[in-house]
Amino acid sequence: MIVGGGGPTARGVVSAASYEARAFGVHSAMPLRTAGALCPQGIFLPVDGRKYMSVSKEVMAILRRFTPLVEPISIDEAFLDVTGTEGLFGDGATVGRTIRDTIKAELDLTASVGVATTKLVAKIASDLRKPDALVVVPPGGEAAFLAPLPITRLWGVGGRTAGPLRELGVTTIGDLASIAPALLERRFGKNGPALAARARGRDADPVADRDPAKTIGHEHTFDVDTSDRDVIERTLLAMADGVSGRLREAGLKAGTVVVKVRDSSFRTITRQKALPEPTDLTEPIWRAALELARPEVRGMRVRLIGVTASHLGEREQMSLFESTDGRRRRLVEAEDAIRRRFGERAVTRARLLGTGLPAPFERDPMTAPEHRRPVRHGEES
Questions:
Q1: What is the DSSP string of 221-267?
Q2: Whose CA, among 190, 218, 253, 352, lies 20 to 30 Å from 358?
Q3: Beta pairing partners, 260
Q4: Distance separating alpha carbons of residues 98 and 81, to the nearest angstrom
Q5: Cβ count near 109 (within 10 Å)
Q6: Which listed residue (71, 77, 185, 283) is catalytic?
Q7: Tens digit of each residue's pLDDT (9 = 90 or more) over 190-225
Q8: Residue 325 pLDDT grade (very low, low, confident, very high; cuts 50, 70, 90)
Q9: Interhelix angle for 181-188 vs 159-167, to 10°?
Q10: What pLDDT band is residue 310 in, cutting at 50, 70 and 90?
Q11: Residue 109's pLDDT is what?
């Protein structure tokens, strides 16, 4: 199973791949055409950002039942500090087992959990036996657990660091732990002592709530480079619609809109505009995107275009004097409810009918029963 912005002949990239597909060499960020060549029998599915955000919120809510100290590090990963709730829920291994069982029972999803005294070791443990495992590293066993693993498993060891380490005869984390910190400092500067500490499983970074998402965006790569103004503007509309829906899903409003344009020669332009007031509605985001994109795409053959919302803040309760039209807000909320129940294609804009725009802007189309007649509205409704 391969998730991306199109099928095996599209020009997008792989967002995620199942473990079965990875066995054929498919990985994230790979061109879809390459994935199609490596795994022609793969099932290609569209990206469904809104659904992922919704499920992520449900998973994070389950995690917060066990401790208030939850640090999300991506849409599907988080660190938990459960030392203060052991009297309520048991030790780390017990909590990890309960979390996996709860996620499976309530969401029918598998989850991998690593339990350790540090974030570093817990993260490595959670990755070790995916997709459905519980790996517990007892206190004092961190160095022994890490020792046989390849050095690339360690935070801070990428291609540029792994090469010089191999020149020193280092291939495993245990090899790295055996080198004197002073030698590593001479070779790698201030990063040397940190490498030595991590190789022994030491990590002083505490679990703490992080800032909410800083941006929400969509990008679309056209199957064929286009200079058609109507196609470009409809694509911007579809992306603005997707971005605004994800903002509402997350309870956020955007203060700035960013547009990204890449032409047929791979030259990339980025422009941004501050909004008069923060919003989570499609129309102001689309209008700002149009204002930014129109001067740039004139006479250009566009390969990729993207819309991103930034400077995000939590949505506040509407006041009696808020400038946003209350009827428009109620309409948008009703549309969101219909999409959640019947799928993204249950409601669409008149200008987007028959465009063939792909699924990065949609929820799962399989959730919309074929016999239901879609509800349609114009651009101004």
A1: EEEEEE--HHHHHHHHHHHHHHHHHHHHHHTEEEEEEEEEEEETT--
A2: 253
A3: 270, 306
A4: 15
A5: 14
A6: 77
A7: 888 888 899 999 988 898 866 556 789 988 888 788
A8: low
A9: 120
A10: very high
A11: 95
Q: Is 77 a catalytic residue?
A: yes
Closest CA to 13 of 304, 257, 302, 287: 304
Instruction: Note whether 176 and 196 are within 8 A (CB).
Output: yes
Q: What is the mean pLDDT of residues 251-266?
A: 91
**Token pair belonging to 281:** 């509605």
Report the C-alpha gap between 320 and 326 in whole angstroms. 9
Q: What is the 3-state secondary structure (H, E, C) of 140-179?
A: CCHHHHHCCCEHHHCCCCCHHHHHHHHHCCCCEHHHHHCC
Query: What's the first-to-final CA gap in the chain, in angstroms?
Result: 37
Rounded CA separation 139/117 (Å): 6
Cα(318)–Cα(128) distance, integer angstroms: 47
Q: SS3 for 347? A: strand
State how far the Cα of 135 lies from the Cα of 114, in Å rounded to an integer. 5
Instruction: Provide the b/e sequence for 131-166 (b: ≥16 CB within 10 Å).
Output: eebbbbbeeeebeebbbeeebeebeebeeebbeebe
pLDDT of 52 reads 86
Closest CA to 174 of 193, 192, 201: 201
Distance (Å, whole) CA 367 – CA 109: 18
Amino acid identity at 219: E
Q: Which residues of 262-295 are buried (b: 16+ CB within 10 A; e: fewer)?
A: bbeeeeeeebeeebeebbbbbbbbbebbbebbee
